[in-house]
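Quality-control log, excerpt.
Job 1 of 2 completed; input and output follow.
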Amino acid sequence: MLPKLIITDIDGVWTDGGMYYDNQGGEFKKFNTSDSAGVLLCRQLGIQVAIITGENTEIVSRRAKKLNIDILFQGIKDKVSCAEEIWNKTGCTPSETAFIGDDFGDVPLLQKVGFAGCPANASEYIKKHAHWTGMKKGGEGAFREFVEHILTVEGVLDATVDQIISKLHATK
């Protein structure tokens, strides 16, 4: 069954988990643009994407805005309570939800959803709470790989990719 909602952590999933600081107090994160295709695939199929992250930065807000991800929660310590709020607003259930996370704060939500995943570099004690572990590390397209895996298992990846390619060529 295709999920109706995919929730993702950011640091360690969309990024390599590194936090970069300059001498003026600026903070930087490196995102892999490959993950934006995961959002595009979800959008094509009507799957909602939500971000729940423990950090609270303008950087993540800007990335979510660029990708038109409207469900964004930052500075969250209790990701299950936050997910429950999302489920109440969207009408989705835990069993209709997939989640990808990589660290301690993600475990309760990994245990609660219908399909849970981790990037390749998540610690073994985190991976044991996931249904699937990817080949890609966080920051290397792990979110896209997670989405593509789900769509492959459901047998809809190729058709969805074809639809996206057709739309892109039709607009030229």
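Job 2 of 2 completed; input and output follow.
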Amino acid sequence: MSRRLYDLAGADPDCRFSPYCNRIRRALHAKRLDFETVPVAFTDKEALAFSGQKLVPVLVDGERVIADSWAIVSYLEETYPKPSLMGGKAGRALTLTFRHWVETAIHPLILRAVLMDIHNALAPVDQAYFRETREARFGSTLEALHQGAAALPQLARALEPARATLRELPWLCGDRPGFADFILAGAFDWARAVSGLPLLESDDPVNDWYDRLNDRQTEEAGAA
């Protein structure tokens, strides 16, 4: 198979928890494209040296090497236009806005809920790297930053824009899922991969949307 996605993994190579990789896996399934994933640990920078940088996701499609989730989905939209996941220039711009909302408003709250779970899912060498880099970034210890379930009320409030949309539409992108759906779902995939903490109430429209999206992805993966 010539299409490979390099994907962040924990001590268990099947533990894939990067929200940025998750959204690309969902996009590949939605476009019914065959691919294999290559697990990459935090400290395994040499595995990505061929891409000219050090971060996942990286997609290799034949002779093409594309890094960064936004660059990858842009490539997929251009190279494999059907089905479109962003709906043209206007849809692309709105998806970019939604991406920034998720990454600035939702990711930090999920991170505070599962921070120590991420740390505990890593191999010892990666735990040391994760602690050093994140504590330097945030200016605090992991233990002080981790909130667990205490972060969930604020997360629920922050999700209200998505919740309001899902009371009126089946998907965030309207009649069928698009990349905006995958961006938010990738954040929940991130938590689910490392933690048993339920982020959503069972009667939350966002929870119903996430369950339906997972069912749909299972069907698309089987048809790829």
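Post-run check on job 2. The radius of gyration is 17 Å.
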